[in-house]
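Notes from the 1:1 (GR / supervisor)

We went over the backlog. Supervisor wanted to see one worked example end to end before approving the batch request, so GR pasted a single chain during the call. The sequence is below; no edits were made to it. Supervisor asked that the structure be written out right there so they could see what the output format looks like.
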Amino acid sequence: MNLNFLKLRDWKMKVLTLNVHGWMEKFASKKIKQLAQVIATKDYDVIALQEVNQPMKEGMTEHKRFIKPSQEVNLVPLKKGNYAGVLVKELEKFGKYYFWTWSANHIGYDKYDEGLAILSKTPQNSQVINISQSTEYDNVGTRNILKSEISIFDKKWLIFNGHFSWWEDPEDNQIFKNEWDRAQIALNENMKENIIFMGDFNNEASTYNKGYDYVLKTAPFLNDSYTIAQENYGYATMKGKIDGWKTTSDSKRIDYIFVSDKLTVQKNHVIFNQDNESIVSDHFGVEVIILE
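Structure output shown during the call:
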């Protein structure tokens, strides 16, 4: 793979975030092929995926472009049937070769190792950071963020990928606030870098004085790509009753791409919502083109 073109051309950073719903999604094998085809066509530079799972009972496997992240607890080996691994192999059929990293957050649906993945056109230096009070692997409340340092266009980028909890739990504990406060430690150490923070934040943009507002208040060096984009298409990133949102049928914007305030966003599009590419998950994706 020739990486020089990523340094020489006038650069536009193309990124995607998507909660894929993993192998829990109906017709997942068909949809992962559809996802690969769109990624290959769009030619994203960096991709952040959430709810990336693998069957716990499968045997271990390897991939030559898999980058093992540094992780202090709950280090789970890569296994056959890893959703991101299958996606990467589908992309190879289109002549697209991505480096990728993956880490598990917790056990999902009693049978999966469920976590986060970052795909990139260039190698990564990746780290897993725990942001939840729990570190127990069998606790669905155990949450990490995945941080990758990537060099593209002769520039250093810090990519963060997260799948956060709701603002509060049934006992009114502000779990999102606690998670974001921990994530901010890593952010504040690198606030002068080119940062892209993507993921499923499980907090609505339209809900006043909760998760979304808290992010903007506590990280003023980040902008929501939706609010600063020169061109916008679409709004909601989920519709109807889905896992985690069974008590509501309203459309919501809960998936975001936050970027350093020194960067310009040319386009912010909702994708995989049927209007803009076929649905592949219970979430819609967000694709962004970033300029300096």
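Supervisor's comment: The chain has a mean pLDDT of 94.
Batch request approved.
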